[in-house]
Amino acid sequence: MVSGRSGWPFRTDRAYGNVLKRLGEEQVQELLVGAFEIDELGVLAGTRGTGLGRRLLTKAVEDQGSRAWLLTWNQAHDTIAFYRRIGWKEPVVRGSETDIVVFLSPDHSKA
């Protein structure tokens, strides 16, 4: 797992420009800046369904406070279903639809 805190000005490289397009600058500042970002998470195929991914996310968020976020590709249907199933929430889209989906941790204070 790779992660860190999001700052301002918000990055626009990689998929971050699409985060700005999807949420808008105001929501990015309110929800993501200063929050802990889960940049990458993966588990081996043989460990899927064991709760390992949930435990990793839970521990990372607990260690960093309750404000955390992540993003995924909108065609990663199993991944999106997983995040929803474990209580991660999608903020309201205030900008344009993009090919990414942003999720906020279950206890994110501004969800």
TrEMBL record:
SUPFAM superfamilies, per the entry: Acyl-CoA N-acyltransferases (Nat) (SSF55729)
MF terms in GO: acyltransferase activity, transferring groups other than amino-acyl groups
Source organism superkingdom: Bacteria
Keyword entries, A-Z: Transferase
A Pfam family: Acetyltransf_7
Keyword Cytoplasm assigned: no
Location of the N-acetyltransferase domain: 36-90
TM segment ranges: none
Keyword Ribosomal protein set for record: no
Gene3D superfamilies: 3.40.630.30
InterPro entries documented for this protein: Acyl_CoA_acyltransferase, GNAT_dom
Protein name: GNAT family N-acetyltransferase
